[in-house]
Amino acid sequence: MQSGLPLQGADDGTGQESDEIGTGRQRASVIRVGIGSNFWTDLYHHALTTSWPRFLGWSTIAYVAINLGFALLYRLCNAHINNAADLDLLSLFFFSVQTFSTVGYGVMAPTGHMANALVSVEALLGMMINALSTGVVFARFSRPRAQILFSHIGVISQRASPAALCIRLANSRKSAVLAMEAELSLSQFVIGEGGYPTRIFTRLALLQSQMPELRFTETLVHPIDSASPLAILSVEQLDATYAEILVTVRGTDEATGQAVLLQHGYDHAKMIKGMRFVDMVVQDASGNYRVDYRRLHDIEQEAEAAA
Fold this sequence. Notes:
- It is a multi-pass membrane protein.
- Residues 1-25 are annotated as: Disordered.
- It is found in: Membrane.
- Keywords: Ion channel, Ion transport, Membrane, Potassium, Potassium transport, Transmembrane, Transmembrane helix, Transport, Voltage-gated channel.
- The two termini are 41 Å apart.
- The strands form six sheets. Strands 5, 6, 7, 11 and 14 form a five-stranded mixed β-sheet that branches.
- The protein is 27% helix and 33% strand.
- The protein is built from six helices and 18 strands.
- Strand 8 and strand 9 form a beta hairpin.
- By secondary structure, the protein is of the alpha+beta class.
- The protein has helices at residues 43-49, 52-76, 89-100, 113-142, 229-232, 235-240, and strands spanning 16-21, 28-33, 80-82, 109-111, 148-150, 154-157, 164-171, 177-191, 197-204, 210-214, 217-223, 244-253, 259-267, 271-273, 275-277, 281-283, 289-291, 299-301.
């Protein structure tokens, strides 16, 4: 689960949307009621957040539908287009494509008031849609996305006292994430005053939450001392509140100067005790250091502490 916030579900057609809270063994559904569908009123957001295959697919469908619609209008209105044989629908479709994209090869041209009126409307619509489409495509490409990788699991080191929760992350790009801040939180779904369910977030203190840069790899460490909720709450209590451990990372991309924000969620039950992460940074025979990203998720048994 990539986000500690409820996952947005699909509208079932009744003005309801289903979400999920919790991970792993404990999961529950949350139904949003009364918000309805906001697809057309929030079309720009949908265009930015949908997947590339879906975006390109719907763009192609809309492009073909608009040009086919104008081709049918030319035919129904008996608009005369030079070199379009007998109002042939395929010829009118290609003429519409040329007009919509403002290419205008000159082989086919409108004659008469009706044809020129339709061409004027389509040319105006084409310029507007092409401008909007260019802006959306640019916005999708220019959105800041830091390529920060999170370990699949967390480990609880018991070699020192107090024990410590460790989560590893790594930067897979050559450019660093500057002025990085990391925050660890415990998310719980509880019944508050008055019997109403609510979601609470408890910050888990880190040994180091601010770093000048993240260029290769870093391990976030939370001491499980007497003040830590992980030491106070039992496994049963954590299960009952659909507990998640959320990692939020903020920083500035070195290459673009844009702010980046990522969040990753962990099931509290997937924190493995008595283990440590395998070292990712190793020195080879020539004295150079290598960062092996294949080891990001690898763990091993902790060595026993010296007496």
